[in-house]
Q: What sequence folds into this?
């Protein structure tokens, strides 16, 4: 018993764990001292315990494999259907364009008005999905968000200011989708 207590002190085991170890070790000592188990019975017990542990191991491996497969399926579904809600919102824009193209008696001012309304609808859908417009007219040039297409001399604006925006840029949740294509002023 002194040897067991020394092992417990060396391992840092105390409290409740100590009682469990002492009880387990006492049972082993009792079994060994009584001599109730023959070597064959001890071998059989060891084989049974090994079989139980092997079964637990196989079940754990199978469960881990199932979790891995489930995770792969979930990622694949997320990738495949990630834009589902975005696509549903865009259907409204498509419906609006279809109504405009199917109209036989349409005047130019009505077509322009309908296009403006459809553009506003599309922009609101983009904002709903964290797509922000970059329209840097009159702002200082920022190479991170703007692409300079050319430079022009300007007496009114400071050098490095955006004079004209050829094409607006877009951000998706602060990630650049497309830089704004601009003309920048120079001295």
A:
């Amino acid at each position: 018993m002194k040897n067991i207590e020394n092992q417990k002190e060396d391992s840092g085991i105390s409290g409740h764990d100590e009682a469990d170890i002492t009880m387990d070790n006492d049972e082993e000592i009792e079994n060994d001292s009584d001599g109730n188990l023959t070597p064959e019975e001890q071998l059989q017990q060891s084989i049974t315990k090994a079989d139980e542990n092997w079964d637990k191991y196989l079940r754990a491996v199978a469960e881990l494999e199932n979790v891995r497969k489930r995770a792969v399926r979930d990622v694949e579904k997320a990738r495949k259907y990630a834009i589902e809600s975005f696509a549903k919102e865009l259907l409204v824009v498509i419906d609006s364009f279809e109504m405009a193209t199917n109209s036989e008696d349409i005047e130019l001012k009505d077509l322009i008005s309908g296009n403006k309304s459809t553009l506003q609808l599309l922009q609101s859908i983009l904002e709903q999905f964290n797509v922000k417009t970059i329209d840097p007219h009159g702002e200082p040039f920022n190479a991170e968000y703007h692409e300079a297409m050319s430079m022009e001399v300007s007496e009114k604006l400071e050098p490095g200011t955006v004079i004209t925006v050829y094409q607006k840029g877009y951000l998706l949740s602060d990630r650049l989708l497309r830089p704004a294509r601009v003309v920048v002023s120079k001295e």
